[in-house]
Amino acid sequence: MDAGFTAEQEGIRRTLRELLHKRCGPEELRAALDTPAGHDPALWTALADQLGLPGLALPEAYGGIGCSVTELALAAEESGRTLAPSPLLATCVLAAPLILALGTDTQRAGLLPRIADGTLTAALAVPGADLATALALTGTGGGDWAGGGRAGGVQARRAGDGWRLYGQVDQVLDGHSAQLLVVGAHTGGFARSRTLLFLVTGDAAGLVRVRQTALDATRPQARVQLRDVEAELLGADDGDGVLGALSAVGDTTAAVLACEAVGAADRALQRTVEHVRQREQFGRAIGSFQAVKHRLADVYVQVQAARSAAYYAAWATTHGERVGGLALAQTLEALRGAAAEGIQLHGGIGFTWEHEAHLYFKRASGDELLFGPVHRLRAHAADAAHLFEQGWEVAV
C-alpha cells in the first residue's frame, strides 16, 4: 500500500475543499436544511459541473470519470468537514453502484449517464430497522429484511409484463426528493422466496413520500409508501446476485462513511482548538491549562488513528479486502469523542442551537443509528474473521 496520495487525488481534495468553503458555510448549511429538499440544488449542480463529483467513481463508458472508491472516499472526507447536505451518499454511494452491478445494459445506459452529470438523483429504499441489515454491515444480510413472505416490508407481484410493489419503508435517505428509487422487495412466496431490487420513478402513481424529522438534519430521511406502484425489475429475475451486490456496496459505503466521519471529526477538533486558544479564564487562555491539553491530545490521537483506518479501508476496497465495517466503527467512535469534547470545552455556548457543535455530535449519533452501532459493527467483523469460534485450543 502506498500511503501517499497522487497529484490527482490531492487536486480533488483541494478543489472540493475550496468550493465547499465558499458555498457551504454555517449560514448556507442551515439555509439548505430548511429547504424542501434538505440540500442546496445549486451546490449539487456546481459539484457536478465543476468537479464531476456524481460521476467520480462511475466508468467513463457511462459518462463518469472512472476513478476508484478511494477518490470518492477522499471527496466524502471533505464533504464531512462541512457536513454538506447533498445527494452524494444516497445517489453515488448507495444507488449507483447497484445499478452498475445488477442493471441490464439498457438500464445502465439510460440511468448512469444522468447520474454522472448530476441531473438524476437516486435513493436506496430497503425495509427493516436500518440500512446496516441489508448492507450486511452488522449481520449476514440474508434477505429477511425484505419481508420474507410475511406481513410487513415491501412485497412485489407480477402484473402482466411488469411488477407492482406494495409496502412501506420508514427510513430512506433523501427518499423525499430523489427522482429514482431503488427498492428492495420480497417476492415468490414460500416456494421461491427471494429478494429483488426494483426501479421506481419519483412521480409514479401510488407513491407517497413524506420527509421525516431526523436526529441528524444534515441527512434528510423520508417515509416511503408504495401503494400498488408500478416498478421495473433491476437486472435479472433470479435474484442470485442481489444479496452479494448489497454486501459489496455495504463495504464500500462503510469505507466512504469512515472517511466522511474523519473529515467531520478533524473539523470538530480544529474548531475546539481555535476556541480554547481564544477563550480566557483566570486571565489566561483555557487552552493553556494542562487538563484541557490532555483531553485534546487524546482526541487528536483518536482522530489520527481513525484517519489511518479510513484511508486503509478506502484502499482495501479496491483490492478485494473488506474492512470497511471495522474502519467505520473506529471513525464513528472518534467523531463522537471529538464532538462530545467540543461541546464540553466550548462551555455554555457549545450547548446552544445556534452553534455548530451539536451538528457534529448529531452526525455521529445519526450514523450510528443508521449504519451501526459501533459494537455491532465490530462484532460482525469478529464473526466474519472467526475470532471467537469454539474449539480453539490455547497452549499453556
TrEMBL record:
Give the Acyl-CoA dehydrogenase/oxidase N-terminal domain ranges. 6-118
Kindly list the cofactors needed: FAD
Superkingdom of source: Bacteria
Q: In the UniProt record, does the keyword ATP-binding occur?
A: no
Domain Acyl-CoA dehydrogenase/oxidase C-terminal, which positions? 254-382
Task: Please state the span of the N-terminal signal peptide per the UniProt entry.
Answer: none
Q: Flavoprotein among the record's keywords?
A: yes
> Mind listing the GO molecular function terms for this protein?
acyl-CoA dehydrogenase activity; flavin adenine dinucleotide binding
Ordered alphabetically, the record's keywords are: FAD, Flavoprotein, Oxidoreductase
Q: Which family does it belong to?
A: Belongs to the acyl-CoA dehydrogenase family.
Q: What is this protein called?
A: Acyl-CoA/acyl-ACP dehydrogenase
Which organism encodes this protein? Streptomyces guryensis
